[in-house]
Design brief:
This protein has 298 residues and is α/β, with parallel strands linked by helices. α6 runs parallel beside α7. The protein has eight helices and eleven strands. 24% of the residues lie in helices and 12% in strands. Strands 3, 4, 5, 7, 8, 9 and 10 form a seven-stranded mixed beta sheet that branches. The longest helix has 19 residues. The chain has one domain: TIM Barrel (Alpha-Beta Barrel), CATH 3.20.20.370. Keywords: Signal. One of its GO terms (biological process) is carbohydrate metabolic process. This is Putative polysaccharide/chitin/xylan deacetylase.
Length: 298
């Protein structure tokens, strides 16, 4: 199984994928994207966006606004600002047919960012407890090789309203394999995630961020309606930024991973996630649910 082995480098399956480090300082385990010629792809614009068929909000809850300060302090955190109400007119609208859009942020003036968690290798029970108490929304891009040892781990996170999205069966660099294999990777993960979690993913994240025109065709054939990139990536204590001023922007999508001490130099998943929330809070942002800003095809 190909997995994220480095915390600050792009997977170097091809020169095109490795060259992505020059495109953006997002070069973490998932890396950046490359076009059909193997050249670095520019960071995608918000010409389209995601939605997922999972519960859109925890029953009877209003997210982090309802979390007492004492609970934040228990996890060594300051309270995040209360999240704004989701926009009635969602800024990104998906279509049932036609070209699959690629996006790395959501167009909004609200001081919100969106947290995404990839793969699913680390299954720390303490992280579930943390999420139940803090109610921070996340979007999970799950890869079957990483989650098949315990599909059930992610169901309590899903029950909190967090959506489960597609991240392939085996985590290949998609732009290095033919269309038939790309289709197997996307459709295979789509089938398993739909069976295990009861809803079909509407978003796809290519491993290492690498995709080409064949990837878009495979995604279109298998069911997801958008490809999701990112603007920042979380390491252990700090984020890597695409913007030269190393600041968050409204609507940015942040990449993190289900990782534990073996990949985080002894740091736990909850410690890494707490560091991520600190970096967000320090800049005056809060976390919103990605799918609340995306209109699914009607």
């Amino acid at each position: 199984m190909k997995r994220h082995n480095g915390l600050s480098r792009v997977h170097s399956t091809t020169a095109g994928v490795a060259a992505l480090a020059a495109v953006a300082t997002l070069a973490t385990g998932c890396g950046g994207g490359a076009d059909a010629a193997g050249k670095p792809s520019p960071a995608p614009t918000a010409s389209g966006a995601p939605a997922s068929g999972t519960p859109s909000a925890p029953a009877g809850g209003d997210g982090t606004a309802s979390v007492p300060a004492a609970v934040w302090h228990k996890w060594g955190l300051k309270p995040l600002p209360a999240p704004p109400a989701p926009p009635a007119d969602k800024p990104v609208k998906l279509t049932a047919h036609g070209p699959v859009p690629v996006f790395a942020h959501i167009p909004t003036h609200q001081k919100v960012v969106f947290v995404t968690l990839d793969d699913g290798q680390e299954k720390d029970p303490k992280f579930i407890a943390m999420m139940r108490e803090l109610r921070i929304p996340v979007t999970m891009f799950l890869m079957n090789d990483a989650i098949k040892s315990d599909y059930g781990y992610f169901k309590p996170l899903q029950a909190l309203g967090n959506h489960i999205q597609n991240h392939t069966l085996h985590h290949p660099a998609m732009n290095t394999i033919p269309l038939a294999r790309q289709t197997e990777e996307v459709c295979g993960d789509q089938k398993i995630l739909t069976k295990q979690y009861g809803t079909a993913p509407l978003l796809f994240r290519p491993p290492y961020g690498a995709y080409d025109t064949a990837t878009k065709a495979a995604v279109n054939a298998c069911g997801p309606r958008a490809i999701v990139w990112w603007r920042e990536s979380m390491q252990i204590t700090n984020m890597q930024y695409q913007a030269p001023d190393k600041k968050l922007r409204p609507g940015d999508i942040i990449l993190a991973h289900f990782r534990g001490p073996s990949e985080l130099k002894g740091t736990t998943m909850t410690e890494m996630f707490a560091n991520l929330i600190r970096r967000i809070e320090e800049q005056g942002f809060t976390v919103a649910r990605l799918e609340d800003y995306v209109a699914a095809p009607s």
